[in-house]
Amino acid sequence: MTRAPKPKTPRPRNATATREAILASARRAFARAGYDGAGVREIAAGAGVTAMLVNRYFGSKEQLFAEAISAANAQPIILTAANLKSGDLAATIAEKLVEITKSGDTPLDGFLIMLHSASSKRAAELGREEIEKGHQKTMAGALAGDLAPQRAALILSIVAGFQVMRQMIGLSALADARPEDLTALLTPLFRSLIDAKAGGEPSGAATKSRRSSAGRRAATT
Description:
This protein is mostly helical.
């Protein structure tokens, strides 16, 4: 009579690896379908776990979404410490933006997650919180003068809009343009916001132009 084989000892679950797998699956799902389109079961299947385990690790879909956004934005490409300390921040932002929006390249997860989730009120709130405490705060901290949060928000708006038009919609004037031409056009836009004087007034030619216009108006009154 042969002995029955001993039952296999269950392999201990690596909590850290499981959590990372769920988070990676969530990033892929939210980037593809947005907050409303991605389900917990789909995310669980992508990580090789059950939906119950997803809830055990993250508590709710909202919390999972918030952490997915945070993870996607944890390693910035444009607003790195080195870039923020560069000699010409405006040119650096322009160059990096053109570089990451090459035609045919896959847009960044963080951008896709926000783009595909913007129609959800709750997802938009979570996204706004992440942007305000992350990229906007970082950008504003690199700006001198008044209205730094507003100027930082405008810079981020240009970045996001450019990504949509060039990479998502594929506007031919942008998608087919030479990178150096786009960089040359974007740089002064960013510089006008980065180098603004106190009161939010841009320095240089723009200010002189306004003064000249004001003088002409005064002369005709």
